[in-house]
Write a structure and sequence with these properties.
CATH superfamily: Hemerythrin-like
Family: Belongs to the hemerythrin family.
Structural class: mainly alpha
Helix content: over 70%
Largest sheet: none
Radius of gyration: 15 Å
Organism: Rhodoferax fermentans
Mean pLDDT: 91
CATH class: Mainly Alpha
Number of helices: 4
Number of strands: 0
Keywords: Iron, Metal-binding, Oxygen transport, Transport
GO molecular function, one term: metal ion binding
Domain Hemerythrin-like: 13-125
Number of domains: 1
Order of helices and strands: HHHH
Length: 133
């Protein structure tokens, strides 16, 4: 798998959110390399834990900004956050089961999970915040 590369297309136009996204992409790439390098299941689990932890923190950050600036789509955006975290936690649980290892489909799921949210919901949030901040 190739690395995700930070590009202007992933920018939502709000520096503090873009910085968070850059960090999430960096952790995703660490996980991607760890899988390619055949790192231990424990290391992969720890890296996925870090990605999920940082994502939860980032979502809290976005939700605070939505509240502060009275984002009209806040409820739907927050619901998407909850769905994404739930699916990531389900993946974590799956990968803890004996005999289950990280596969390319899991990496693709995480890549799409990350980029789709940035390009859609976060793009709309960024457009709104750029106008009101």
């Amino acid at each position: 798998m190739k690395d995700l590369v930070w590009d202007k297309i992933l920018s939502v136009g709000v520096t503090e959110i873009d910085e968070d996204h850059h960090k999430l992409i960096h952790i995703f790439n660490i996980l991607n390399h760890a899988i390619s390098d055949g790192e231990s299941k424990e290391y992969l689990a720890a890296t996925l834990d870090e990605l999920v932890y940082c994502t939860v923190w980032h979502f809290s950050h976005e939700e605070r900004l939505m509240l502060k600036h009275r984002y009209p789509e806040a409820q739907d955006h927050k619901a998407e956050h909850q769905e994404l975290i739930q699916s990531a936690k389900e993946l974590q649980q799956l990968l803890l089961q004996p005999g289950v290892s990280f596969a390319e489909e899991h990496v693709l799921f995480l890549e799409q999970w990350l980029t789709k949210h940035i390009l859609t919901a976060d793009g709309r949030l960024g457009t709104f915040l750029s106008r009101v901040m």
